[in-house]
Design a protein that fits this description.
The protein has 216 residues and is mostly helical. It has helices at 12-39, 46-53, 57-64, 67-90, 97-113, 120-128, 134-159, 169-189, 195-210. The longest helix has 28 residues, at 12-39.
């Protein structure tokens, strides 16, 4: 008899309970994500979330354990949804400029959709830029992961000959990120008409600057 055969097998009722627990946690996370988009990560609390979901504080606490763990879970969930909506679909595009354009246009589209609710990447950076700790670290890691994907795409576009050979991927990233920040600021804070169109035009201007000259 092997040691593994001595381990208790999960019962059907146990599996159902685990599945229900996962569904409950997902529902709480969904509500928490909506709250964080409106009130910021600092606006999240176990009590507010319990009130929003109609659960007890102890019920919410059982799934996350602390406000900090809740905030980090929201950041990770936001990042997972961001990747599913922006990053992974863009990988279906050909390497080089087509993929870079797809990534950036999907990013701009998401930022423009979030004008009324707010982008957790951007609002979170304002909340935690001078507050070291696990929440800031989790948020910074997620943003760096996205930036790494963009830098890799820019580098591929340069290697494919779509961008100039002297293109500095980090500099181009800086300029593209600046456009996304300006869009969020002008559209959400200033309510400037045409901000989305200006961001799109800015993207084309950056591409034109770095685009490789036609061969022949």
């Amino acid at each position: 008899m092997t040691p593994h055969s001595l381990e208790p097998r999960p019962t059907r009722s146990g599996s159902r309970a685990a599945h229900k627990g996962q569904q409950t946690r997902a529902s709480i996370l969904d509500a928490a994500l909506n709250l964080a988009s409106q009130k910021g990560l600092e606006g999240l609390s176990i009590g507010l979330l319990a009130e929003t979901t109609g659960m007890s504080k102890s019920g919410v606490f059982a799934h996350f354990g602390s406000r900090e763990e809740l905030q980090i879970s929201v950041i990770r969930e936001y990042h997972a949804r961001f990747e599913e909506e922006v990053f992974y679909p863009s990988l279906r595009e050909p390497r080089g400029l087509p993929r870079l354009e797809a990534m950036y246009r999907r990013w701009l589209k998401r930022v423009s959709v979030e004008i009324d609710s707010g982008c957790i990447y951007i609002s979170g950076a304002v909340e935690f830029d001078d507050r070291p700790g696990p929440v800031r670290d989790a948020l910074a890691d997620m943003v760096r992961t996205w930036h790494t994907g963009l830098v890799r795409s820019i580098t591929m576009a340069r290697e494919e000959g779509h961008l100039r050979a002297d293109t500095d991927a980090r500099q181009m990233l800086f300029e593209l990120h600046g456009l996304a920040l300006a869009l969020h600021h002008d559209a959400r804070f200033l309510r400037t008409p045409g901000a989305v169109q200006r961001a799109e035009q800015g993207f084309m201007n950056v591409l034109d600057h770095y685009r490789a000259a036609p061969s022949g």
